[in-house]
Amino acid sequence: MLNSQTKESANQTESIQLIGGLLMKKMVLGGAAQLRANAEEVNKLNVFPVPDGDTGDNMRMTVEGGTVAVENLESDDIGEVMNTLSRGMLLGARGNSGVILSQFFAGIAKGLSDKKQANTADIAHAFELGVKQAYTSVMTPTEGTILTVAREGVEYAAGRVDGNSTVNSFFEDMVNEMRSSLERTPDILPVLREAGVVDSGGAGLLYIIDGLDRVLNGEEISEGSISYASPAKPSAALTTTFNADSEMEYGYCTEFLLQLRSAKTDVDSFDIEELKAFLSGIGDSIVAFKTDSIVKVHVHTFTPDKVLAYCLVFGDFLTVKIENMSVQHTDLDDKPESAPAPKKQALEITKKYGAVAVSNGDGISALFKELGCDEIVEGGQTQNPSTYDFLNAFEKVPAEHIFVFPNNGNILMAAKQAAELYTRSKIHVISSKNIGTGYAALASIDFNAASPEDILTEIKAAMKRVTSGYIAPSIRDAKINGVLIYKGDTIGIIEKEIVISEKDKTNAAVKLAAKLLEDPDKFMITVFCGKDATEEDKAALERGITEKCPSAEVYFNDGGQDIYPFIFVAE
């Protein structure tokens, strides 16, 4: 874990009284690089000793959503830089830790929004607003987490600001106190102490702020270690089979961020629906939404010049990406499984109800589709989708009311953040915290119901009727909830509680299923088999459940999920 070793750079810069946008941008890039270099260490700070830790990756991808947004911004206006960074992080936020991080930086951006340069007092005030907004973003804030590390670090540093303070001294105080606060998190949260770890979100935040501090003091942190969401692809001109005789069949994938400008339009009354109507006339696969004064657009079109010309009337571009989809499809023609041509997305509301669900297994996704789900957002544990991923899915569902099933507690906040940003439909985010409750809830929907309230009532009742469990391999020794666990064991978890640990995977699965069926109200169990479950495993599990619970009804589905060989849903 991050310690207080001397910073690598011996050439520390002079004390800084004022900070502008260019230096802040460089600091944030350094913070992102520092987290990236240590993301796997943060992932390992998982309370449960199973290979599903993803906090480091979620926070990394969240902050890199912001660094992508500011990558080509050369402004020395710190307010502009932070606002652009914040919006990028908002759309890229993944997992609960990522959403909290994006809200922390949103508060900082608010505090600096009217500043071209900021002094130490300005920075301290902005970080205090960041803490306030981070706490506000969580319905029931839990101490001993990233929130505590942020609050205690900022409170301590801000409390020491006086007439002799510099930006350097503020960041140094904040990093030192955040480090101490992180070390105290097991004293606040017993589950951390029992697991022998510190809070992973707090660790991720410390790496970021430490990176900011190091760059502020003259250390070079390689930007080359930062991964900007998608790996760079070889130049199309050098690798494509698209040539002078090829036909332009698929058009251009056109994406950009548009900064609305008061000199060109009334920013507050800008009509996103008018923009969508224009885009629908010359393209498809449209995603367009407005966050504050930034408009995000994605469209497939044969005339990207018309799109850019239309939007330039209202503002200026922060980022632009145009890719020839015929190049991509020409190159895919020689591959066994070519991607289908993009289909036109429905933009008009054509039905009353729709559904979006998160799934990370082909079998589970297929079942959700059979149950009436319109769109699947790919993801799950270790693959948390972003706010933007949800917005993209919402745009493809032509329904007045959209019911959203995150199916993972760590995805819930990103879904809710997307729901707050989306305006075309009424979004109902269901608190489905695992595949089992999501499955039961989705199966309960009557898409001919008279009102959304009727559907929500049925969903709530269905979720109460089921109990979920799963098995997973252990990656370290631990003692949790009185259960002694050794590395390599298979542990069984019911909802959020570890209940068994066994050397043999089949024994663990059978015992977990039997525990789920101990409830006299439970007589049926559905088993979703993961990628790592062999036919022999399935057969052995079925025999074991039949022997232990002969009156139980058992149903097997090929879920295809990662990490968990078996997921159980008892009802």
Task: Supply database-style keywords.
single chain; 571 residues; alpha+beta; Serine Threonine Protein Phosphatase 5, Tetratricopeptide repeat; Alpha-Beta Plaits; 4 domains; six-stranded mixed β-sheet; four-stranded antiparallel β-sheet; 18 strands
CATH class of the largest domain: Mainly Alpha
User: Number of DSSP strands?
Assistant: 18
The low-confidence runs, each spanning 5 or more residues with pLDDT under 50, are 4-12, 223-241, 328-346
Structural class: alpha+beta
State mean pLDDT (0 to 100 scale): 86
Number of discrete domains: 4
Number of helices: 20
Which strand order spans the largest sheet, edge to edge or round the barrel?
A: 15-14-11-18-16-17
Distance between the termini: 43 Å
Give the topology, please.
Layout: E1 18-19, H1 21-43, H2 55-70, H3 78-92, H4 95-112, E2 118-119, H5 120-136, H6 146-159, H7 167-188, H8 190-195, H9 200-216, H10 236-239, E3 252-260, H11 272-282, E4 283-291, E5 294-301, H12 304-312, E6 315-324, H13 325-332, E7 351-359, H14 362-370, E8 375-378, H15 387-395, E9 399-405, H16 412-421, E10 426-429, H17 435-443, H18 452-465, E11 467-473, E12 478-480, E13 483-485, E14 490-494, E15 497-502, H19 505-516, E16 524-529, H20 535-548, E17 553-558, E18 566-570
Parallel strand pairs: 7-8, 7-9, 9-10, 16-17
Antiparallel strand pairs: 1-2, 3-5, 3-6, 4-5, 11-14, 11-18, 12-13, 14-15, 16-18
Helix pairs in contact: 1-2, 1-3, 1-9, 2-3, 2-4, 2-9, 3-4, 4-5, 4-16, 5-6, 6-7, 6-9, 7-9, 15-16, 17-18, 19-20
